[in-house]
Structures are given as structure tokens and as C-alpha cells.
Amino acid sequence: MNNNSTEYKKLFQEKKYSELMFLIERSKNHQDLLAGEHNLLGITRLLIEKNKKNILLSLDNFENGYLKEKKTKIGLDNLKNFINLNVDLYKIPNTDIDIKKILNYFQEAKNFWGYDKNLMLAIKRFYWRLNEVKKVQHVLSEMINNQEHDSTTLCSYIYSKGFDDDWSQEDFFKFSKFIQEKTPLFKEEELTNLKSNKNKKLKLAFLSGDIRSNHSVTYFLKTILFNYDKSDFEIYLYFNHENDDETTEDFKKLVNHSKNINNLNDLDAINTIRSDEVDIAFDLMGATSSHREILFKNRIAPVQINWIGYCNTIGLNGNDYILADPYLIKKDEEKLYSEKIIYLPEIWNCHSGLKSERKEATVPFIKNKYLTFCSFNNFCKINDKVILAWSEILKKIKNSRLILKPSGRSHSSRLKNAFQKNGVEKSVYFYENIRSVDDHLKLYNEVDVALDTFPYNGVTTSFEAIWMGVPVLTMKGYNFNSRCGESINNNIGLTNLIASNIDDYVSIAHDLSVNTDKLIKIRKQIFQNALKTPLFDGKNFTTKFFKIIEDLNK
User: Fold this and answer.
1) Domain assignment present for 302
2) Measured between alpha carbons, how far is residue 82 from residues 42, 52, 453 in Å?
3) Residues 347 and 371 in one domain
4) Is residue 414 part of a domain?
5) CA neighbor of 382 nearest in space, from 411, 355, 344
6) Is the same domain home to 499 and 442?
7) Which domain, by its residues, includes 200?
8) Which of 28, 21, 23, 29 is nearest to 57 (CA)?
9) What's the rounded Cα separation, in Å, for the pair 401 and 403?
10) Which letter does DSSP use for residue 403 in this model?
11) What are residue 449's DSSP bridge partners?
12) What secondary structure letter does DSSP report for 343?
């Protein structure tokens, strides 16, 4: 780097970040800094505090470092950091990113350097942020073709394929077996012995990277943790996230034991959990989130179950069961899931409810004189076929409107361009700056009917809509993941809002606009009955859930 390299390294290792920044910036003018110094400045600044100001300054460093030495490895490192940090920047309200510039830099570097794993990982994150699932898949496919068979790459790929319908369940099953093949096993002598718990209480472990920030998983896990019999069960929570928050702390109070295994390597994590001698372990991540599939392949408990995080087979021999219900997996399809199917009698999960007070709202179209649809799902779930179906609905129903709001800050240019191409852009309204849960729920008061996505259905958003008295129009699917909407509507008695195909989906929406008395009746039915149905009857669900779990241990 220069004559100061040894001093830079020493200060960095000693975590004297402010001194290091002062030394670099004092040594020469900004325009004379080398690529390595730009990279070090950018990284150091973020280690001091990752706020908006420091992110913007670090982006300037990383960009200058790349432009200064495009044809050196340190220049390439600057670009990787530049792309990744732009993804982080976009999470911050009132910021924007230069998409064209980033993609140009990426293509330029790829043309010069060829395949580089970390560059591909950076652009994959960037495409996720743009909700460009097809491009994510293309990147991951290229990585797999370059023999990147690690768990992160393979799980990301199978997860991404759930967003469109070009794979059959047989394709998911086949690829899941590839994950099984490529996930390594540790030597037996490295592992703590797997022992059976000899206590009277049954020890249950739940492993998740999402017990934070009011994540969707928390609403369903909370149901059983609120209602379980503490004299019969001892509960362990294993967190796989970086930082605890208020949600995490709330969950700690609901269980006997909690540990964060995020900083443990796989072997240490396995041995830590094995040492606790749990009887049954639940994987609440599967191929999603910060998955740790290697833990389950190497077995952390005598019995292991896939539940609520990933609604499909994960393919691992170590996952013994998957929790489903009769609407999700047909008997003749069981061979396409590597796990044995445990059918909960009514629904595979149950929402713990929301803090907001339920009030029966006036049906919006009575006041507005037009029908308002919505989808508050992850924008990645809104694929080309969904856009086409929604565009047809907006064309068929005069003056109708569609409100779209993602769960977090999400780039909307792909969707806006597609709706514009279909000639309905003036009927689509994007609400992208609603942050609080209360404001999010209040937005349902402006909605007549929620439109489900397909094949990747909404789950939490559908429960929320129903809680707020808004019916959800869904469509039949072909596997667990694409039938969640069917299960939800069957369990609340709204079978007439389960379409057979896209034409039927559009037709049902149009029928509701013509027969508004039917819509009023449906909404009243939902508001009056929802909390008594399996969707929200937590005590009933918990009783049946733990009865099944006890039977497994007999």
C-alpha cells in the first residue's frame, strides 16, 4: 500500500479506528489516496459507526478506490464493497441508488476479471434489493455451474425458485436431494454424543434467525409459546441473528433457555445444542434467512422437524418430519417430500393476533364508489403472471385501484414499468414509506379486497388482512408453498375466494365488483368469525400441536 502499511495494520488490529483514519487522511490529499487506502478508510469508518453519513462517505471511498485501480485485486475489492454498501444504503429512508452506474461497474469488472465468487454474491444481493428474482436466479445458476456448492448458494437458489412456477414439485425434490448430497457431515469423533433426555419434561428446541424485528415467524411461534404447558415441556430457543432487539428480549421471557449461536462455527453450534440434550428440534428457517442446514444434516436432536420458516422440502436426511395440513400436501404427493408428513388436523400454523384493536370498518367502496384492491406482500412475489392478472382486473373493473406496499423498503421500478407496459399504471398506488405496524394495519381500512400472489402466496399478510376484516382472493397451487392461501381460505370458510386458475381469479374479482352485496356479506362474515377459526384460535391449535409432538416421543 505504502510505507505506512505496517502502522495501518497495527492500528486496525488494535481496533484504534479513529487513529487509523486520522493517519491515512493526514498522510496525503484525498485525490492521492491509493485504492487500498480508500478501501481501508471505507471499512474503518463503518466499523466506528454504520450511520447514513458514514455509509455515504464510505461509498465515496469504495467508488474512488475502484476507479483508481480497476485492474487490481484491491480495486475489485473496492467494487464489491461499493455494491454491497449500496444495498445497505437503500434500506435507509430517503436515500436512492444509481442502478445504472452500479450495473455498468459490475459488467465492466466481470468482463475484465471473469468469474469471481464474491463479486457474484454482491450483485446477487443487489438484484434481490431490486426484486429482480430472475436475475438472482441467473447469478446463482452461474455460481452453481462454477462449482459453488456451498449451503448458502444452493439454499438461495432453491428458495428463489419458489417465486415463479417454472419448477414442478418434482424439480424442488430433485434439487433438495442435491443439497443433501453437497451438505457435509462431520466426523463422528468430532461430535458430542447425541443423548436422549432422561427428564420427565420433553425438551423442545426451536432454531431461527428471525426472532427479531417483529418478523413474520414470530407471530406464529408466539402462539404456542403463549399457550404451552410449562409443567410438561422445557423450551430452548437458539437464535441465529447478529443483534438482539426488543422482539428477541420478549421471546426470551417466554421460554426456559435461550442462546445465540450466530457467532459459533457449525461444529461448535452442533455440539452446543447436542450438549443441551434436547429431544426434538424444529428448523424454523429451512432454505430461507440465515439458514444452518448443516446443523440438521449432522443432527442436533433425535427428532428434527421442518416448520413455518420454509414451506417446502429441504431434502436433508436429518429432517425427519415436516408439519403441514390436509390442504397443503396431497397424499399422492408425499413421495415428493423427503420428510415424513405430519398433518395438523386443520391448519399448519396459527397467528397469535395483533395488538391493534379490531373495529368493523365501513366497506371502502361504499364511500369511494370504486373498488380498492391491495397486496402488501414482498415485491419479489409479484412476478410477471401476477402483474398480468392484476392488470386484467384493473382493466375489467372500471375505476378500480390497486395499493401495493412491501413489508420493508423495496425498489419498485420493475413493477412500475410492467404496469405501465400493461396500460394500468395510473390505477396502481405505491405506499413505500409506511414504517410503523399501526400505520401498516390502518392502510387495510382503505381496502375492499386483498389480492394474493402466486405461486408464492402471502401468509402473514393474509392473516393480517383477515384480522382487519379484509377478504383475500387466492389461487390453487401445486405444492405446499403455493397452497398456503388455499389452506387459509379453507380454514375461514372462504372457499369461493379460491380461484382454479388465472382466468377464474380475474373472474372472481370482477364478480365481487358487480355483486357488492356479496362482498359486504363476506366482509361481515370475516370480521365476526375470524378469531373463532383455526387461523387465530391459539389455545386449540396449541393443544393439537403438542399432542402430536408428545405422540412422536412415545
Assistant:
1) yes
2) 9, 14, 33
3) no
4) yes
5) 411
6) yes
7) 188-352+539-552
8) 21
9) 7
10) E
11) 373
12) E
CB-CB contact of 452 with 464 (8 Å)? no
Query: Residue 264 CA to chain centroid, in angstroms?
Result: 22
CB 429 within 8 A of CB 423: no
As to burial, measured by CB atoms within 10 angstroms (0-12 exposed, 13-18 middle, 19+ buried), residue 125 is middle
Tally Cβ neighbours within 10 Å of residue 367: 9
CA atoms of 352 and 219, how far apart (whole Å): 5
Number of domains in the chain: 3
371 and 483 share a domain?
yes
- Under a CB-based contact definition with an 8 Å cutoff, are residues 545 and 358 in contact? no
pTM of this prediction? 0.94
Q: How far is CA 203 from CA 87, 233, 302, in A?
A: 40, 6, 11
Taking only the tens place, the pLDDT of each residue in 19-43 is 999 999 888 888 899 999 999 999 9
Closest CA to 375 of 462, 451, 488, 301: 451
In terms of residues, how long is the chain?
Answer: 554
DSSP H stretches of helix in 342-452: 364-368, 384-396, 413-421, 437-442
C-alpha cell at 123: 450483485
What one-character DSSP code corresponds to residue 199? S
In order of 245, 317, 318, 353, 434, the CA distances from 467 in angstroms are: 26, 38, 37, 8, 19
Dihedral over Cα of 324, 326, 329, 335: its sign? positive
416: Cα within 13 Å, side-chain hemisphere: 10
**Average pLDDT, rounded, for the chain:** 95
- Cis, bond preceding 455 (omega within 30 deg of 0): yes
Query: What's the CA gap between 176 and 296, in Å, rounded?
Result: 14
Residue type, 532: K
Q: How many C-beta atoms lie closer than 10 Å to residue 505's C-beta?
A: 25
- Separation of alpha carbons 62 and 77, rounded Å: 8
Amino acid occupying residue 331: K
Residue 547 maps to a domain: yes
Other Cβ atoms closer than 10 A to 261? 20
- Amino acid at the residue 444: Y
Q: Of the candidates 48, 78, 111, which is a domain's last residue? A: 111
Same domain flag for 543 and 502: no
Orientation angle between helical segments 151-160 and 169-182, nearest 10 degrees: 170
What are residue 207's DSSP bridge partners? 238, 283
pLDDT digits (tens, 9 = 90+) for 457-504: 999 999 999 999 999 999 999 999 999 999 999 999 999 999 999 999
Q: How far apart are CA 6 and CA 2, in angstroms?
A: 9
